Every structure is written in C-alpha cells, then in structure tokens.
C-alpha cells in the first residue's frame, strides 16, 4: 500500500524543480511543492491514506485522530473510516484555525471529551508549525496528545520541531521517497 501511495502522491501532489520556484507559506522559495489534497481527496488515495494512517496509530488505541483544518481533515476522516472497517473505531476531529465565538466556544469539532487520548495528524510538515499549533489547541481542550503523524515530511526540520512538543512523531512518507519515485 505504501508504494502505491508514494506513486499516487508523486503523480498528483508532488512537484520538483532544479531551481527554487515554489513559494512556501513562510515566503521562502523551495525546489519542492507538496499539495496532498489531490491525493487524499481521490478515492484510491483516501483508501490508502486511511489504512496506512490507521496502521501507524492502531497500537495506541486512541479515542480520536485529527488536526488543523483543512490539511488534516480528509486524512482524519479516511483514518476514522478505516478504523471502523478494521474493528477498532476511533473518531475524527478537526481543529479550527479561529476559535468559535458563538455557542460553545471551542477549538475542536468532533465527539471527544477532555482526557481523551488522541493522535494529531497533518498532511505536510516543513517547519512543523501547523502541527505544533494543532497540538497546543488540542491540549487547551484537555486532550492528551499521544503521537503526531505526518503524511509527508519535507525533511526540513519539521519533525524535529514537533518532537519538542510531542515525543512520539512519525512520518508516513518522506520527500526522499517522493524524489525517488519521480526519478530525481
């Protein structure tokens, strides 16, 4: 499954240029561009991501899996669906970018309660900033973050930065694996 997902990401979500032509959120220019959404919203990609992410976290038996909207949302939903198919259900959750200011003011949408053990996920890590923000907001809501898993690690220090907030951090796929898939 992993090799098939790498091939799909390489086809639909990964771009490389010998010159740094891709502008990142930080404003820095890069040789690489990763947009996982075309893959994780594709039916086969959703299947592969859900099952691989579930395999990466099933040992923890977390109550939930999720992260900062919008990057983590399709991955969390695919993982929750796969978890039900595998007989070990876990709930998906989504962390807002801005706190809800009406009703019950919360960072998180989903069926979780303070004290629940969760895994925070993200689609791509460059510096790890989005994942760290998700971890902090999950903890603000009383959740126990037991692992962070990134779909694609750009191998630019993000996982190391996240480890300063969560000891157990993993990536399913690395930039090097995507580079190998495109023959670069």
From TrEMBL:
Q: Does the keyword Ribosomal protein apply?
A: no
- GO terms of biological process kind: 'de novo' UMP biosynthetic process; pyrimidine nucleobase biosynthetic process
**Which ranges carry the Phosphoribosyltransferase domain?**
112-160
What is this enzyme's EC?
2.4.2.10
Family annotation (CDD domains)? PRTases_typeI
Indicate which residues the UniProt annotation says bind orotate: 126, 154
Pfam families associated with the record: Pribosyltran (PF00156)
Q: Which residues form a coiled coil?
A: none
Q: Origin, by domain of life? A: Bacteria
Q: Where does 5-phospho-alpha-D-ribose 1-diphosphate bind?
A: 96-97, 100, 102, 122-130
* Parts of the chain that traverse the membrane: none
Q: Give the metabolic or biological pathway.
A: Pyrimidine metabolism; UMP biosynthesis via de novo pathway; UMP from orotate: step 1/2
Q: Which InterPro entries match?
A: OPRT (IPR023031), Or_phspho_trans_dom (IPR004467), PRTase-like (IPR029057), PRTase_dom (IPR000836)
UniProt KW keywords? Glycosyltransferase, Magnesium, Pyrimidine biosynthesis, Transferase
Q: How does it assemble?
A: Homodimer.
Which NCBIfam families does the record cross-reference, listed alphabetically?
pyrE (TIGR00336)
- For this entry, the protein name equals Orotate phosphoribosyltransferase
Say which species the protein is native to.
Desulfatitalea alkaliphila
